[in-house]
């Protein structure tokens, strides 16, 4: 049964607005050498771990790139689902596993980062315990409602009493996003957790048990286009193509304390859905994986195949992601404390 956690808290003390240290746009593929494979991984079987159940957005993204990555490496890449603890269990196992390139994972960048910063139960790793191969997809987040939902616009959400966000629980990006929205906009709201997956949470939304769900645009695209879900807010710097009528947080007039919290969340979102390996991986093996992933993720045929599945490959290089992780490490204390308080309440 779903359980209710988190409630409205007062805004943090006023602080200076957080700036993007190295710029906020990433994703241009670096030039790499041609040819596939490398001595360390050629002919090997590589397990690409998905920390969630089959059929969801992370599973789909992993399967889109698995075979092309294997072709570039002259290796076999198999996808294995290892759900648990909002995606944290699989990452814990990864960082303690063999660092030879045969074990990699697709990670929930926002959820994992928020869990690490907030010292959530089950986050027994640091972001620096991981090596970053490249990003498969972005985390352009939208808040959606049911077509018959009682709160039809973002302004109505802000004016609502006891607005209920749905979430799979601490460890998920939806939990972190709802936590920040409640604080920044002083919502009279709570987070209902305990849903095994997004499909169950979406069913609860359609049945009226909860009022809103946050998640990546790609995961909601088909339902939005079919009229089964309606975007209310884009948790992005600019409005998204799929939800042009939903205001973006980046266009709102915010005080410095609001801006610093939202900018921190958007920085976490830049990590997106990266492929990661244990940090102890040999430099030449990591380079091999990065170059192979770049070729696979930017291959026009792979991009087209993703689009046929209503998915967008939001490529960023491993080096880009290292810069994002460095910025995440510099988020302000009030953002970390807000997450700590939220996870402590949830435990």
Automatic annotation (TrEMBL):
Belongs to the UPF0065 (bug) family. Keywords: Receptor, Signal. It holds the Pfam family TctC. The keyword Ribosomal protein does not apply. This is Tripartite-type tricarboxylate transporter receptor subunit TctC. It comes from Pseudonocardia hierapolitana. Residues 1-19 form the signal peptide. InterPro entries: BUG, Bug_dom1.
């Amino acid at each position: 049964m779903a359980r209710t956690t988190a409630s409205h808290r007062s805004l943090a003390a006023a602080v200076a607005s957080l700036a993007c240290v190295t710029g906020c746009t990433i994703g241009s593929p670096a030039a790499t050498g041609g040819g596939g494979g490398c001595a360390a991984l050629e002919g090997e079987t590589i397990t690409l771990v998905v920390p969630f159940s089959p059929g969801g957005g992370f599973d789909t993204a992993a399967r889109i790139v698995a075979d092309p990555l294997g072709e570039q490496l002259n290796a076999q890449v198999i996808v294995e689902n290892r759900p648990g603890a909002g995606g944290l269990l699989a990452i814990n196992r990864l960082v303690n596993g063999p660092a030879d390139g045969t074990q990699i994972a697709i990670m929930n960048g926002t959820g994992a980062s928020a869990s690490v910063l907030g010292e959530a139960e089950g986050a027994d790793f640091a972001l620096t315990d991981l090596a970053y191969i490249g990003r498969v997809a972005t985390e352009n987040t939208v808040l959606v409602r049911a077509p018959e939902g009682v709160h039809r616009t973002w302004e109505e959400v802000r004016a609502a009493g006891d607005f209920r966000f749905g979430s799979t629980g601490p460890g998920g990006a939806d939990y972190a996003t709802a936590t920040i929205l409640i604080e920044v906009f002083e919502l009279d709201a709570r987070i209902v957790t305990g849903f095994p997956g997004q499909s169950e949470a979406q069913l609860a939304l359609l049945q009226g048990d909860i009022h809103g769900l946050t998640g990546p645009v790609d995961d909601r695209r088909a339902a939005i286009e079919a009229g089964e879900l309606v975007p209310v807010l884009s948790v992005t710097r600019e409005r998204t193509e799929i939800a042009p009528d939903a205001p973006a947080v980046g266009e709102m007039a915010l005080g410095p304390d609001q801006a610093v919290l939202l900018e921190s969340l958007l920085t976490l979102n830049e990590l997106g859905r990266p492929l990661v390996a244990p940090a102890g991986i040999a430099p030449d093996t990591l380079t091999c994986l990065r170059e192979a992933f770049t070729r696979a993720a930017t291959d026009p045929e792979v991009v087209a195949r993703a689009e046929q599945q209503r998915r967008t490959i939001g490529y960023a290089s491993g080096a880009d992601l290292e810069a994002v992780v460095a910025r995440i490490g510099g988020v302000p204390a009030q953002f970390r404390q807000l997450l700590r308080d939220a996870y402590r309440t949830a435990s």
